[in-house]
Amino acid sequence: xxxxxxxxxxxxxxxxxxxxxxxxxxxxxxxxxxxxxxxxxxxxxxxxxxxxxxxxxxxxxxxxxxxxxxxxxxxxxxxxxxxxxxxxxxxxxxxxxxxxxxxxxxxxxxxxxxxxxxxxxxxxxxxxxxxxxxxxxxxxxxxxxxxxxxxxxxxxxxxxxxxxxxxxxxxxxxxxxxxxxxxxxxxxxxxxxxxxxxxxxxxxxxxxxxxxxxxxxxxxxxxxxxxxxxxxxxxxxxxxxxxxxxxxxxxxxxxxx
Length: 257
What we know:
This protein has five helices and 13 strands. It has helices at 7-11, 15-18, 37-42, 75-80, 141-155, and strands spanning 22-27, 29-32, 54-63, 65-66, 71-73, 89-92, 95-109, 115-116, 127-135, 160-176, 179-183, 204-205, 208-225. The longest helix has 15 residues, at 141-155.
């Protein structure tokens, strides 16, 4: 996928950079040897404790608002992408040739950690959390030992989770003097792209901070990394505790009551 470059962006020499439409951001993780009820529903084979060859991870994948990369997530965009993390890869250090597991579930949480199911509650979304598994059984002993060391480092809180996403377009968010303004990206506003830190800018324009608002994105996976954590991350194995096991309604409903 290639993002359309507007005239001003081409003049600013950003056409090649706009072709890189991937983002990654680091989050802390929690860990557990026991799957949650929600995961039991999502992956039926987890029942009866027979999956002793799996190691479970829970993490905040992304949060509404800006992150340290100056990317801004909107609640409605996270809602639209809420199911996209499932079945995506869990890799080591963002290396697609070093896949060590898979994402099995995702939920939306409000600021109090309650699960959100209904679209009427989209404005209350704060985080999207995921559960994933690392495959712990490998016939190759060198691989098995390496995975054991990775898990040991996770247990020692030395590793974090970094989300991966692909996006097809973006807008801008300008923040100045407490005012937050969403600016659509088009031919008239494309001059702002060169000010974004993602494209080599300072992250500021005319006294305002400039953020990139990701649009039409899909979560494409997450990596185990050793970089600093997202301030919104929660190192806790209870992220899925409040999740209900089923919700059959669509639109206005009482599933979250």
